[in-house]
Design a protein that fits this description.
Blueprint (H helix, E strand, L loop, with lengths): L2 H24 L10 H12 L5 H4 L3 H13 L26 E7 L4 E6 L6 E2 L14 E7 L3 H5 L5 E11 L13 E5 L2 E5 L5 E4 L5 E6 L9 E8 L2 H14 L1 E8 L7 E2 L6 H4 L3 E6 L7 H31 L1
Antiparallel strand pairs: 1-2, 1-5, 2-13, 3-12, 4-11, 5-10, 6-7, 6-11, 8-9, 8-10
């Protein structure tokens, strides 16, 4: 490992420690009052030996107060819950942030969706993180199972659109970050795109729109971003479909051109009540558009029914007149 990589690792480790300390204060996970918050932060920093963060974290209660004000004015975003596929808005049960959401549109327009819970994903550097089996390059982010024969057959023999949503804090793949154009998403061993090409939106821990807005490409440094990978490439999606048939699961991986230099935690920055939310593959049947002949047939049948009704009414009027 080069000196440069060592420095980057140290910076990432420090960034992680800083974030955890801030999160502890802001989420009320420790009993630190306003008058003692600065002392508590200094003591915590002294224990872990992170002197450079004293300047940032001595704001203490000010940080907490600031967060509480922002939370009061937060507003929900539709971006994270709207897939770029023709399926559009996700159904019930999906979180607005966190986890790995998969949205597939079959050749028959049926829709298959799933969400792998954030707490089922990798944490750490890919040379020493957990689960151990996920280490390496490419490193495994997470594995979604449940794509059995009933789910696969519902796709009508193939896939014509696919979208995958990720939420990641401090991804460092945006322009100006050290992993810009260095990371590739692999899905069942297939190249699904450059992390730096994905437009992402900053949100808070609950999925409300954040102040950092959109990245216009990449998952940014020290920012919680959520974005969608998308493809309608016929060759790629044919291979993806075949991989489902052969394995009945989805394996998400990240391939890094400069491996082991970034710390990954797909739960970081996300509210604890959202990190354990997930659901296996579910099928939403297609809603076929009626054929023109079917529409004409329906109109003809309706007109015929009206004519019969009029004839019946006239007959009734004649019978009444005779009486």
């Amino acid at each position: 490992m080069t000196r440069f990589q060592v420095r980057r690792k140290l910076r990432k480790a420090c960034s992680k420690a800083k974030y955890v300390a801030l999160g502890t204060l802001s989420m009320g996970q420790t009993s630190v009052n306003r008058t003692g918050s600065r002392l508590g932060v200094r003591a915590s920093l002294k224990l872990v030996g992170i002197k450079p963060f004293i300047r940032v974290l001595t704001l203490g209660s000010t940080t907490v107060l600031g967060l509480s004000v922002v939370a009061g004015s937060a507003h929900a975003t539709t971006f994270t819950l709207t897939s770029p596929t023709s399926g559009g808005t996700l159904g019930n049960g999906f979180t607005p942030v966190g986890g790995i959401v998969l949205d597939l549109i079959g050749q028959n327009n049926a829709r298959v969706t799933s969400q792998l819970a954030a707490n089922q994903t990798f944490v750490g550097f890919y040379d020493n993180g957990t689960p151990v089996a996920y280490r390496g390059n490419p490193g495994t982010i997470g594995i979604q199972t449940g794509f059995d024969s009933s789910v696969i057959s519902a796709l009508g023999g193939g896939i014509k659109e696919a979208a995958i949503r990720f939420s990641l804090y401090d991804g460092d793949s945006a322009s100006g970050n050290f992993d810009f154009n260095q990371n590739t998403l692999q899905v069942n061993g297939l190249n699904f795109g450059n992390w730096s090409s994905v437009n992402t939106q900053n949100t808070d821990a609950q999925g409300n729109a954040g102040s950092a807005g959109f990245s216009n490409g990449g998952f940014r440094n020290d920012t919680l971003d959520t974005g969608w990978f998308y493809s309608n490439n016929a060759t790629l999606l044919t291979n993806l479909y075949n991989s489902f048939v052969n394995t009945q699961k989805v394996v998400y991986k990240v391939l890094d051109a400069t491996p082991y230099d970034n710390y990954y935690d797909f739960t970081q920055g996300i509210s604890a009540n959202l990190t354990n939310v997930g659901q296996g593959p579910s099928v939403q049947p297609s809603n076929p558009v009626p054929e023109p002949l079917t529409i004409l047939g329906s109109l003809a049948a309706g007109s015929f029914g009206v004519a019969l009704r009029r004839k019946y009414n006239k007959q009734q009027q004649k019978e009444t007149a005779k009486v």
